[in-house]
Model the fold of this input.
Amino acid sequence: MSNINSIEFNSLKKQLDSELRLIGKYKKYLKECSDPQLKQKFEQIISNHQEHYIRLLNQL
Done:
């Protein structure tokens, strides 16, 4: 774990939680969607948020 203080840790935790929520929401939208172009966009958004999550996680 890198040297971060409790304020930075709590901020990262909130950001990680937000990314997970967004991933879950867009996965739900993807599942309910029938438009191929919209599905592709949702997949891109999910991938971006997963990358953000990993980058944030690597800060810990």
Remarks:
- The first helix runs from residue 6 to 32.
